[in-house]
Write a structure and sequence with these properties.
With 991 residues, this protein is α+β, with helices and mostly antiparallel strands. It contains 22 helices and 37 strands.
């Protein structure tokens, strides 16, 4: 009450000054003052429009009209306006003009007819909506001067003055009137207004009759637009900015953002089990983008204003949508690529997905902002549109959330993720959780419900042949063959995955059941570093016996009980190996829907080759093709019959350049580890014997057949193996392998293939003579990386681990970490330092520590001679192994290197070195190392030669050995990279 009284006092004090101001400026005497101080007029005399420069009828209203007149004043610094409305019953009517082209950008002057018959004028500003503009009733911020007004004989009128160039805004901006070009203006009226949500009699002016465009010749137009030229005193009525384009814009955006794009996202997220889902997704997204861009162009052609949230957010979303389109096309291209899965690809994929969902959420807000512009929520005229919006947006939200929840609760195979090994003291890896292999169980359930009388029969060889011919066949559960060709273009992980797994068993990665092996993983024990002050083993060479036993007597092993931990073949992986394995796996949990989809792709059944089956039977084991107990998580459930023709997948975990600064081709030492190391096969070999090869298959191009090459591992077993690869330029296997990065691909490798150079059925130390399993004299002629089988043989014969050796004499420890040896003691090597010393355990005494290898007999009496041809000194590989054997057993190895390049130091090269090429004279030096018989040119029995190098080199060397040095054709073995099998000379010539 006090507040109202104070207002009245202030108004009473200001009223005389207001009257004086009005008289000075031509303003009529106000008959009242509003609550905010705005003047109110009740003039009983109509103004004369002829006193204005120009008068125009804006609309025919019943029997009258709505008109406007204006005149320039004060030297064209201001404009005086007259507004008149008549012809209909007026009840709390309002009329107004706006300076601008639309409701979204104009400043307004509105005249209101009050209940007492007086009128008052206010300035209004737009709300960036097709809604009643905001009223400013306090005159202190006006630039408009109210002059006169009233309601006389059914005619409502008002007069006001407005400056052409308003002063800077205090609380809200004012439009500058244009004299340089015609001024856009809009007008509207409502003869019988209702109370709006703000409590004012200022409601929607209602549509034009017959959806008219506001031109004066049309009846009952409630709003329209003008072009006013103040300098020429002309007024040109113009059609309104068409409302239908805005509705079309909003409708198209609604359909695109809230119907088509969510549909495409839903397909991509939840319907990927449908073949060719990617094409449905792409079609929906491209159609949505096309509609959005079309709608954007439509609105740009009719209206441009970026000063409100809807326009700012919309423009931002258009830019992000274009980026999203590029990301989607890039992601699609990568799905079709055979390039490795890189962090960049992972970033693009995650960013594409995140940006897509962000845009969909932003679209919900953006459509609401658009509806707020066209159909303000407080006005009932747009209620139907709001209802449709809420229903559609709500349905999508419920559909996404409900489907995601259903998928997680009922469709997901709840395997645990692949656990990363954790390290604690003692270098033990902790068990991170052992998942139940439910995926395979789910497939077994589905598979058992089906009957397949006409399945094709495959073995691993025929399966590989079909894959090489273009089929995308995979094996699951060790038994069933599935044709995944229809998924090649639409697999969520890209076709690189299908190409990598084609022809292999996908049980572990498809069903996410390999997480268990992290708990099984045990890194190698820590090996003490070699001590620099240890004795030089060359001082012990004089004490080496001149003869070496050809075998170990069985009774020498009687004291080895309880030492199996040293006798077992090593299956160690390093932490670095494990990290690269996990990275290369890219394991994904497939839903039960995907598993059921896989069951529908069944085309065949896998059977072991007859040779492997028969071999298993001969060994007294019952070969089980498929373990029926697939759900118990036991190791035995993972075992299947081993077949060297089966491709298994490996990860590249280490890559080392072994000949840096070479003028020739670089040579890399590559380490491959089995992708699922503890998925063992029944009858799987523990050793890859010298002379055997592993076949590595690559597929550098999706549309070409796979390429493969045979490599003899320089070290390793079926779990982890290392090969030497000379990198040649081009698209060949070596060039491809040399360019690969660690952990980025899965490599298909099978083997071991071919016959070994030694007889594994009668290994040394368990009966038989040396001649039974390895020749007494062996000449190995190699070129380049052809030395690899020799290095393999060298380690197998002279640098074994977990193999019993006999001490050839006594050794007294010189340091605290060394062990004593006595002639006849049995020692097992745990680690070779490659300097003539080894770490091991004396089984006879139980001591463990370092000892000199020259004080032991090698496991064989064989004498090896190496003739190695290389391009440059830097190309000599395996020098660490060669030097280790020369230091340990110098009487059992002689080395000859032939270097074709004249430059380069050979100071640190062990053995005999020749410059040039291998010729008869050089070959004679190597051959002469073999023991001679009693008669001239008669060699003792048991000699053998192995040749390994390029084809032309092999042929030349074999010819020399046979025709120049008297070798029998059966005494010469030739190894090639084109085949895992070695040939005798006559067989090669006949082939």
């Amino acid at each position: 009450m006090m507040h109202t009284t104070a207002r009245l006092v202030v108004i009473t004090l200001l009223l005389p000054w207001t009257l004086v101001f009005a008289q000075v400026n031509g303003q009529q005497k106000p008959t009242g003052i509003g609550v905010e101080g705005q003047p109110q007029f009740s003039s009983q005399t109509l103004p004369d429009p002829s006193t204005y420069q120009h008068s125009v009828s804006l609309a025919n209203v019943g029997s009258g009209n709505y008109s406007m007149a204006f005149a320039l004043e004060n030297g064209a610094k201001s404009v005086r306006f007259l507004m008149m409305l008549s012809g209909v019953q007026l009840n709390r009517a309002w009329m107004g003009i706006g300076f601008g082209s639309s409701m979204l950008s104009s400043g307004f002057i509105i005249t209101h007819l009050l209940a007492n018959g007086s009128v008052e004028m206010h300035e209004h500003t737009h709300r960036n909506q097709y809604a009643p503009p905001t009223s400013h009733e306090d005159p202190k911020n006006w630039v408009m001067e109210p002059l006169n007004g009233g309601y006389v004989n059914g005619i409502m009128f008002s007069e006001f003055r407005r400056p052409v160039d308003p002063p800077p805004p205090v609380e809200y901006p004012h439009v500058t009137l244009s004299f340089m070009s015609p001024q856009h203006m809009i007008w509207a009226y409502n003869p019988a207004s209702k109370i709006n949500t703000l409590g004012h009699y200022f409601t929607y002016h209602m549509p034009n009759d017959d959806n008219g465009n506001g031109l004066p010749h049309l009846p009952n137009q409630t709003h329209g637009a003008l072009l006013v030229d103040y300098t020429r005193a002309t007024v040109e009525p113009i059609p309104l900015n068409p409302y239908p384009p805005k509705v079309a814009h909003g409708s198209l955006m609604f359909i695109a953002w809230l119907v088509i794009l969510p549909m495409g996202a839903f397909i991509s997220r939840y319907l990927r089990f449908i073949p060719n889902w990617i094409y449905f997704h792409l079609t929906a997204q491209l159609l949505g983008v096309l509609i959005i861009i079309t709608s954007f162009v439509v609105i740009l052609a009719t209206y441009i204003n970026y000063n409100y949230p809807h326009a700012i957010l919309g423009t931002t979303m258009i830019g992000l949508l274009c980026l999203q389109l590029l990301l989607g096309l890039g992601n699609r291209k990568m799905l079709r690529s055979v390039l490795p899965y890189s962090p960049r690809r992972q970033f693009i994929r995650i960013f594409h997905r995140t940006l897509g969902y962000t845009l969909l959420l932003a679209a919900i807000a953006q459509v609401a902002l658009g509806l707020r512009i066209l159909f303000p929520f407080e006005e009932r005229r747009g209620l139907a549109f709001w209802i449709v919006y809420i229903i559609v947006a709500g349905l999508w939200i419920l559909l996404f959330l409900g489907t995601e929840l259903y998928r997680r609760l009922f469709l997901s195979v709840k395997d645990k993720t692949v656990p990363a090994p954790e390290v604690e003291q003692g270098n033990k890896f902790l068990e991170a959780g052992k998942p139940v292999p439910k995926g395979m169980t789910e497939l077994a359930k589905v598979q058992d419900e089906k009957v397949y009388p006409d399945l094709l029969s495959y073995d691993w060889r025929s399966l590989d042949k079909a894959v090489s011919d273009g089929a995308i066949l995979v094996v699951a559960n060790g038994r069933y063959v599935y044709d995944a060709s229809q998924w090649l273009r639409s697999h969520p992980g890209g076709q690189i995955i299908l190409l990598a797994v084609a022809g292999t068993d996908i049980s572990s990665d498809y069903f996410h059941e390999a997480g268990y092996d992290a708990a099984e993983f045990t890194p190698p024990r820590r090996i003490p570093l070699q001590r620099a002050e240890r004795q030089d083993v060359t001082t012990l060479h004089e004490s080496i016996p001149s003869t070496t036993p050809s075998n170990l007597a069985p009774d020498s092993l009687t004291s080895m009980s309880g030492t199996t931990e040293f006798m077992e073949t090593s299956h160690y992986l390093t932490e670095e190996d494990w990290s690269k394995i996990v990275r290369a796996r890219r394991t994904h949990v497939h839903t039960k829907v995907a598993i059921m989809r896989l069951s529908n792709l069944l085309v065949g059944e896998l059977h072991p080759s007859h040779k492997r089956w028969q071999k298993a039977l001969n060994q007294g084991s019952e070969p089980t093709l498929v373990n029926q107990d697939v759900g118990d998580g036991n190791d035995d459930a993972q075992n299947r019959l081993f077949d060297p023709e089966e491709y298994r997948r490996y990860a590249l975990t280490s890559k080392t350049l072994v000949n840096p600064n070479t003028p020739g081709h670089p040579i890399f030492r590559l380490r491959f580890c089995l992708l699922y190391p503890y998925e063992r096969r029944q009858g799987e070999p523990e050793i890859i014997y010298p002379g055997q090869a592993m076949e590595i298959q690559i597929r550098p191009h999706a549309d070409r057949i796979p390429l493969s090459r045979y490599y003899s591992p320089v070290h390793g077993n079926m779990m982890a193996l290392e090969v030497l690869v000379k990198m040649y330029p081009g698209d060949g296997v070596s060039g491809y392998l040399g360019k690969q990065r660690l952990g980025e691909r899965q490599f298909k490798i099978r083997g071991p293939l071919g016959d070994p150079l030694v007889g594994p059925e009668r290994p040394l130390g368990f009966g038989g003579t040396g001649a039974d399993w390895v020749p007494e004299d062996m000449l190995f002629v190699s070129a380049g990386t052809g030395i690899t089988p020799f290095l393999q043989l060298l380690q197998y014969l002279f640098l074994p681990t977990s193999v019993p050796l006999l001490a050839n004499g006594d050794y007294t420890p010189a340091m605290s970490d060394e062990i004593a040896l006595h002639e006849g003691d049995t020692i097992v090597v745990q680690h070779h330092y490659l300097d003539g010393w080894a770490l091991g355990r004396n089984i006879t005494t139980g001591e463990e520590g370092a000892f000199p290898l020259p004080k032991t007999h090698p496991r064989t009496s064989t004498k090896l001679t190496l003739l190695n041809a290389v391009h440059a000194p830097q190309d000599i590989i395996g020098t660490d192994l060669i030097d280790a054997v020369l230091l340990s057993y110098p009487r059992h190895l002689q080395v000859h290197h032939v270097i074709s390049l004249r430059e380069g130091s050979v100071e640190n090269v062990s053995g005999f070195v020749y410059r040039g090429h291998v010729c008869e004279a050089v070959l004679a030096q190597a051959v002469s190392n073999e023991s001679m018989g009693d008669e001239e040119n008669e060699r003792r029995s048991g000699r053998h030669a192995v040749v390994c190098g390029p084809p032309q080199f092999n042929s030349a060397m074999v010819d020399q050995l046979i025709y120049k040095f008297g070798y029998q054709s059966t005494d010469v073995t030739m190894l090639t990279s084109d085949s895992p099998y070695w040939y005798h000379h006559l067989e090669t010539c006949n082939g």
